[in-house]
Specification:
Layout: H1 10-29, H2 32-58, H3 63-90, H4 94-174
């Protein structure tokens, strides 16, 4: 079927332009992230407008299908616009939220750093105590080595005396 010339897409085109104008106005009023999203919506509206022009020029699709598709797209765009507005209203100050999150992480980091300092201090104390015990062990080993050497010398002296006594006893017995 051909589109009748009398039936114009101007009302739909005007509502699309009104929506585009509202989107443009909302874009200027919102943050940079929302501006980009609304800009993409504007681009989509332009694509739809071009599609309407192409559809009108080609006259290949029935009018009812074209109108239904465009109305569906218009509802989707309006719903998305509402979602974006709600998100912007709910998250009015993302910088403050991010600052609070950063502060939480900093507080956690300070706590971990404090625990690390305490652990290092405890490790140093253990290391000092270990060195002191190691020194005491070394001194005890030196003392023990000295005592062992002295004991060995006394045993040798005792054996020498015993041997000398035995030699003297044999000499007396032989004379």
């Amino acid at each position: 079927e051909r589109l009748p010339q009398a039936m114009s897409l101007k009302p739909l085109d005007e509502s699309m332009r009104t929506l585009a104008s509202a989107v443009d106005h909302a874009t200027r009023a919102q943050t940079a992230g929302a501006e980009q999203t609304l800009h993409s919506l504007q681009s989509r509206l332009d694509e739809i407008t071009r599609a309407i022009a192409v559809t009108g020029a080609k006259q290949s699709m029935p009018l009812e299908q074209s109108l239904a598709r465009m109305e569906n797209q218009l509802r989707q765009i309006e719903a998305r616009r509402g979602e974006i507005a709600a998100q912007l209203a709910a998250g009015s100050d993302p910088i403050a939220e991010l600052e609070a999150e950063r502060q939480t992480y900093l507080d956690q980091r300070l706590l971990v750093d404090k625990q690390m300092v305490e652990a290092r201090r405890a490790l140093e104390e253990c290391d000092i105590a270990f060195r002191q015990l190691e020194q005491r062990r070394h001194l005890a080993e030196q003392s023990l080595a000295s005592l062992r050497e002295s004991l060995s010398e006394k045993r040798l002296a005792a054996q020498a005396l015993q041997l000398r006594a035995q030699q003297l006893a044999e000499a007396i017995a032989a004379s």
